[in-house]
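To whoever picks this up:

The nightly regression suite flagged Trypsin as changed. Nothing in the input moved, so I suspect the structure step. Input below, exactly as stored in the fixture:
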Amino acid sequence: MGAVLAMGIAGGAVAQAQMECIEPKSDQPVLRIVNGDRAKPSDWPFIVGLYHQGAKTQFCGGSLISQNWVLTAAHCWGEARPQDVSIHRAGSDGRLDPKGRRIAKLIAHPGYDPADMNLHDVALLKLAEPFDIPNSQLAILPSKTVEAKLADVRTCSEVAGWGALQSGGAASAYLMAVNVRQLPTETCRKGYGPGIRPGQGPHLCAGYEEGGKDSCQGDSGGPLIVRDGPTGFLQVGVVSFGKGCAWKGFPGVYARVSDHRDWIFSTVEAH
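Regenerated output under the current build:
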């Protein structure tokens, strides 16, 4: 197997870097990731973009959970073939680094169901050649116990990517990031219906009930994180779907990492 995954936090303490979750103003235009800012690549060392060689475009995101494994969304692979895709980290200017890695193996979650609210919308990519990245810069996959502690801390989650700058718009050339609140799944059930699983299940709801800030098209598969101090990157979600981008009443829906953590570790171990 040879992969060393970031298993989570040792002990019970969760020491987050403080970030204020600022509610979007009602008169703000719906722009950027949406309503985010240019991200520092050094703040997102684990994030990757999936680049389609034939279409010459970045179409999804992902996160490095080891030097040669990427966590992304299963729905990214409806039409794309692994042999046509390369994986790229962010360059120093926030653009995709031209030097990427090819995919040796694609493994989608066996329970993924696009007809059932993108249930279990996670996939793993084994790279043909590992990236040179220290373990301390990999995304950490927290357990449900750790995630429950995070929910008690009143700081923001963050999501980043090279996706559309507004609903239906063009992708960003630069890595963008935005802070969003984790919301009760009941909030997403109000907008999307009972197909959103309640509680700490496979779906995670994040954004703002009033809209204004969100991930968008092209950000799919990218990480939703909570920071643990200045260098810990706890990935709690994978960008899955939404209605439009940053629409009122329709926060973003993410695949909950803790609910899929056992499958992720067992799959990496087996391959």
